[in-house]
């Protein structure tokens, strides 16, 4: 019963942290949906694989009368669950580390508001106020057509 006790303890914490009644499954789903987790957090894939495995083990114990906790788990499994619980409490778990890494990638200080270019400028606007930057889609299309025609004529 040590495994189930450790699992339920971790599952309850995950429910509180995630604010989701799916508890550990919500934590796993959040990890699966993260685009950057494996890039920024060492051991991300390993932790995700372990969590999914322990959820599977828990479901086998609870729903399959052929399996007992002793058949599927050992002391090292209980230790891993307890360690993961402590990592969440210390904010050293994968999701917390990913959040911290993502925040460190953001620029510090207030962001400058984007400058809006008016759709129309007055007729007497100086040349410096005219739109600059990438050509519009129509201009790009015409350039492409011209390039093809030149290529065909050569």
Molecular structure report:
This protein is mostly helical. The chain is built from eight helices and no strands. The protein has helices at residues 2-18, 24-33, 37-40, 44-63, 69-72, 75-89, 94-105, 137-153. α1 packs parallel to α6 and α2 packs antiparallel against α4. The longest helix has 20 residues, at 44-63. The radius of gyration is 28 Å and the shape is elongated. The N and C termini lie far apart (81 Å). Mean pLDDT is 83; it is low at 127-131.
Q: SSE layout and pairings?
A:
Elements: H1 2-18, H2 24-33, H3 37-40, H4 44-63, H5 69-72, H6 75-89, H7 94-105, H8 137-153
Helix pairs in contact: 1-6, 2-4
Total helical elements: 8
Q: Give the uncertain stretches in residue-range form.
A: 127-131
The counted number of beta strands is 0
Beta fraction: under 5%
**What's the gyration radius in Å?**
28 Å
- Give the SSE order as H and E letters: HHHHHHHH
Which structural class should the secondary elements be placed in? mainly alpha
Tertiary shape: elongated
- The helix content is 55-70%
* Termini Cα gap: 81 Å
The major sheet is characterized as: none
Average of the residue pLDDT scores:
83
């Amino acid at each position: 019963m040590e495994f189930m006790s450790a699992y339920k303890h971790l599952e309850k914490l995950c429910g509180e942290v995630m604010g989701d009644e799916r508890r550990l499954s919500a934590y796993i789903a959040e990890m699966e949906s993260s685009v950057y987790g494996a890039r920024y957090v060492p051991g991300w894939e390993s932790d995700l694989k372990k969590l999914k495995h322990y959820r599977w083990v828990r479901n086998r114990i609870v729903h399959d009368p052929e399996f007992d906790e002793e058949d599927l788990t050992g002391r090292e499994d209980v230790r891993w669950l307890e360690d993961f619980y402590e990592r969440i409490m210390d904010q050293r778990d994968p999701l917390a580390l990913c959040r911290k890494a993502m925040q460190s990638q953001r620029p510090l200080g207030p962001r400058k508001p984007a400058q809006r270019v008016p759709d129309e400028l007055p007729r007497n606007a100086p040349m410096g106020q005219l739109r600059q930057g990438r050509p519009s889609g129509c201009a790009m299309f015409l350039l492409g057509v011209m390039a093809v025609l030149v290529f065909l004529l050569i």
